[in-house]
Amino acid sequence: MNDQCVLIAGGGPVGLICAYALGRAGVPVVVFDENDELQEDPRAATTHPATLELLDQIDVVDEVAARGLTARTFQFWDRPTGELVAEFDHDLLRDDTKFPYVVQCEQFKLCEIIKSRVDQLAGCDYHFSHRVTAVRTESDRVIVTVDTPDGPAEHAGRYLIGCDGGRSLVRKQAGIKFDGFTWPERFLVLSTQFDFEANRGMCYRNYVADPDEWCNCFKVAGDGPPGIWRTVYPVDPEAPEDELLADAFTQQKLQAFFPIDEPYDIIHRNLYNVHQRVAATFRKGRVLLAGDAAHVNNSIGGMGLNGGIQDAINLAEKLARVWHGEADESALDLYDLQRRTYAVEFVQQQTIQNKKRLETKDPETRRQSMDELRATAEDPKRAREFLLGSSMIAAMRRAGKMQLAAK
């Protein structure tokens, strides 16, 4: 059993980027993905400036931008009044980053881009229809049991990275707690080719505040013009799923926010539970966690996939140095410190705040919140500071400077 490799459980965007970044650094990897092919279901799309900087480091940013949409601005709307409250322009960050904009590139496209690169690297093996079912660790290696089309098999590696999602088997087998909570409401996603820019004056990224029923509305490229607009709403957690996804309810939902004279052509609909959780540690011996296996959050602000990509690049750089004898294993503890602190102190707090901003019910609190957003957007200095936060630049750079305390 050849154990001179890094094992990766989960071949989605985070697992793929771990594999590609490690492979580029000369580290052999073996990826196990339970699906029989790359998944094309619409998921995350927003790629923030801080993440674009990292994708530039692995030479894929131009292809990601070419397959997505560039969004310089985002807007906050007040649903009760129909008012455009504030617009923020990433161009204010032109002196802070090479990428003063967001790229809206769907997750499955990113997977396709990275998978094509992984396939070209020697020492990178990717296995579809391979599901990791058990993990055991020894002093110098990790052994996984994998369900394969030919039956169960065992594989060994010097390290195992769990990129296997919010229900991570790797995390559970390692005995790592996943503390946090689940929001009471579910999120409903409805996609349509109706042009909200031409017909509603919206930009490519919009947040609509309402004390009873907020909405996010943003555009992705799809297969090309005219593109696809996705809308996201909170819905009753007790309502039957089939009712929430039925034409009657989904049409009512869209028409209530954006009335038009004919039915919407809804080309995709999805319903999911929403969690705010962070693993108790991102490293336990030779087992490491990244992406949703390590942290999950609500989607408002588009920080989930970004955090996972940032995990992957941070971990791959440190693990490659350990692999080649350029650093000791404390570098992996530093990964845990930097990325877990980032997840707890920034992503969790920011995404919870984003949700509260949209759903605040108290009239005076709502007024103050809208006034604050308006004043911030109108002041270039304050707007830049706001954008350094929303773009994930400030927090990522602060976390990147963290070092382990001297023993």
Largest sheet: 7 strands, mixed
Structural class: alpha+beta
Detail the poorly predicted runs.
none
Secondary structure: helix percent: 25-40%
CATH level 3 topology = FAD/NAD(P)-binding domain
Q: What is the CATH domain class?
A: Alpha Beta
What percentage of the residues does DSSP assign to strands (E)?
25-35%
User: How many structural domains in the coordinates?
Assistant: 1
Q: Mean of residue pLDDT?
A: 96
CATH architecture: 3-Layer(bba) Sandwich
Radius of gyration: 22 Å
Count of individual beta strands? 22
Q: Write out the strand line-up for the largest beta sheet, numbering strands in chain order.
A: 6-5-15-16-17-14-18
In short:
This protein has 13 helices and 22 strands.
Verbal overview:
The protein has 407 residues and is of the alpha+beta class. The chain has a single domain (6-181, 276-400), classed as FAD/NAD(P)-binding domain (3-Layer(bba) Sandwich). Helix content is 37%, strand content 27%. It has 13 helices and 22 strands. It has helices spanning 13-24, 49-57, 61-67, 107-118, 169-173, 196-200, 241-244, 247-257, 304-323, 330-359, 363-378, 380-390, 393-400, and strands at 6-9, 29-32, 46-47, 69-71, 73-78, 83-89, 102-104, 124-127, 131-137, 142-148, 151-157, 159-162, 178-182, 186-192, 205-209, 215-220, 228-235, 266-272, 275-279, 283-284, 287-289, 295-296. A seven-stranded mixed β-sheet has the order 6-5-15-16-17-14-18, with helices on both faces. A six-stranded mixed β-sheet has the order 8-2-1-12-21-20. Strand 15 (205-209) and strand 16 (215-220) form a beta hairpin. Helix 2 (49-57) runs parallel beside helix 9 (304-323) and helix 9 packs antiparallel against helix 10. The chain is globular, with a radius of gyration of 22 Å.
